[in-house]
Design brief:
By secondary structure, the chain is α+β, with helices and mostly antiparallel strands. It is built from six helices and seven strands, in the order H-E-E-H-E-E-E-H-H-E-E-H-H. It has a three-stranded antiparallel sheet. Strands 1-2 form a two-stranded antiparallel sheet.
Length: about 150
């Protein structure tokens, strides 16, 4: 019989299903609430339960992902990310990026030729990665596991 510490790592707190202790399917810690003593605590959730949790309890955005006004420019500046950067930084693949709205721009390569590249609104990419991997904790796990 497993002791309590081992069960916390292998059994999802919400759905009670069992999962491996490492890799992309492992349970990951999610902020859950506070004890009566005012101490913060986390629970370990599977991917599906993390998705449901973060659908209800949205993760906030750093200001770097929001459009902002630059003095003297006269319009919003929106953070964009290239397709290749989105794949590397957020561990997304073509199937994740294909349905997302993008803009094709021309970029100058080292040889001096113009090359079309896709750029995406970075907040949209972050939202997609959060869903694919189950929150920021899932993205961090994917970066380690897929490295």
């Amino acid at each position: 019989m497993k002791d309590d510490d081992e069960r916390k790592i292998t059994q999802c707190h919400h759905c009670q299903e069992h999962f491996p202790t490492e890799g992309m399917d492992q349970l990951l810690p999610v902020p859950w609430g506070y004890t009566e003593e005012g101490r913060f605590y986390e629970v370990f959730l599977c991917l599906d339960c993390r998705r449901r949790h973060f659908d209800t309890h949205k993760e906030s955005y750093k200001t770097a992902y929001e459009a902002y006004q630059y003095p003297g420019f006269g319009s919003d500046i929106t953070p964009w990310i290239t397709e290749s950067e989105a794949k590397v930084q957020y561990c997304l693949d073509d199937s994740h990026l294909e349905p997302l709205q993008n803009v094709v721009v021309k970029s100058v390569q080292a040889a001096g030729k113009f090359q079309p590249i896709k750029v995406f609104y970075e907040k949209l990419i972050l939202d997609k990665a959060r869903w694919v991997f189950g929150g920021e904790i899932g993205i961090a796990n994917a970066r380690v596991d897929l490295a």
